[in-house]
Write a structure and sequence with these properties.
single chain; 2 domains; Malonyl-Coenzyme A Acyl Carrier Protein, domain 2; transferase; Malonyl_CoA-ACP_transAc_FabD; Mal-CoA-ACP_Trans/PKS_FabD; EC 2.3.1.39; 4-stranded antiparallel sheet; Alpha-Beta Plaits; about 325 residues; 6-stranded mixed sheet; alpha/beta
């Protein structure tokens, strides 16, 4: 049996048409999508397949859409007796990892992240918060530059995602991000790219959402994870349901430590890291940590077949 790590993408990986191919090929996927529609009380599937893009990119729709597709693909793999040795996810993707680890049902997770999306959007005034990707600065250099912005302008600006070498995402007030777009280039950044997001996610400005989200987390039935997963907040494995719940709340206002998670997974000598869900964002980040890393992406019937054939061929060998 191959030693596999399943990793799951987060917000930003969505695209109109996601999951449509699998929906029409597999009755299981169709059933899961329809059950999610019922649980949410609206037709998420139509938004995923037909858009418009503006509707899909609303946080309250993006989050359940990405989770639903990842959960459906994971279930298809389970039918092929293919499971993970370890799991992880990027921000929202951590919930897909928890579904794969059987810490939460996919229906509960779909409903929970829908509520999470609403809380995140409502946590800070629309248009007042922002995020940006910083390329070409080391973490220490970036921290120094952000501290200067905080002191001089009395604005909130913090590291949100540590994605891979040379790529860090920052989050904060729109005023602070606008200042950073110029000042960080002067500090040596190769590029500073504003992100199309609706709020200052993974910053202390999300703490009001975290307080409300704790109540929603406590309503859900949780189990200890049967497959350990690397937590975004600590970059360490977790399986206890109480620790999982606590870290999910903290995750809203804490940096995502995906580079460290990738390094930890690679240190486990896995046979492959498998990105499960729409897009190939995480596959690219993994390759930037180690270009020789064995990576697969599964988002449609073709990529599913390529991966399952590889697993079966390896098993025969």
């Amino acid at each position: 049996m191959k030693k596999l790590a399943f990793v799951f993408p987060g917000q930003g990986s969505q695209a109109v048409g996601m999951g449509k191919d699998l929906y029409h090929h597999y009755d299981l996927v169709k059933q899961m999508f329809e059950q999610a529609n019922t649980a949410l009380g609206y037709d998420l599937t139509s938004i995923m397949f037909e858009g418009p893009s503006e509707e899909l990119t609303k946080t309250e729709n993006t989050q359940p859409a990405l989770l639903l597709l990842s959960a459906a693909i994971t279930e298809l793999l389970k039918q092929e007796q293919i499971s993970a040795h370890i799991t992880a996810g990027h921000s929202l993707g951590e919930y897909s990892a928890l579904v794969a680890s059987e810490a939460i049902s996919y229906i509960d997770a779909v409903q929970l992240v829908h509520k999470r999306g609403k809380l995140m959007d409502n946590a800070y005034p629309e248009g007042k918060g922002s995020m940006a990707a910083v390329l070409g600065l080391k973490q220490e250099e970036l921290e120094t530059a952000l501290e200067e912005i905080r002191k001089e302008y009395n604005q909130v600006i913090e590291i949100a995602n540590l994605n891979c070498p040379g790529q860090i995402v920052i989050s904060g007030t729109k005023e602070a991000i606008d200042i950073a777009l110029k000042s960080l280039k002067e500090a040596g950044a190769k590029r500073v790219l504003p992100l199309s997001v609706s709020g200052p996610f993974h910053s202390s400005l999300m703490k009001p959402a975290a307080e409300e989200f704790q109540k929603e987390v406590d309503k859900v039935e949780w189990n200890d994870a049967i497959i350990p997963l690397y937590a975004n907040v600590t970059a360490k494995t977790v399986s206890s349901k109480e620790e999982i719940k606590s870290l999910l709340v903290e995750q809203l206002y804490s940096p995502v430590r995906f580079e460290e998670i990738t390094e930890q997974i690679l240190a486990e000598k896995v046979d492959a890291i498998v990105e499960i869900g729409n897009g190939k964002v995480l596959s690219g980040l993994v390759k930037k940590v180690d270009r020789r890393a064995p990576v697969f992406n599964i988002q449609d019937t073709d990529s599913l077949k390529v991966f399952t054939d590889w697993v079966k061929e390896e098993a025969i060998c």
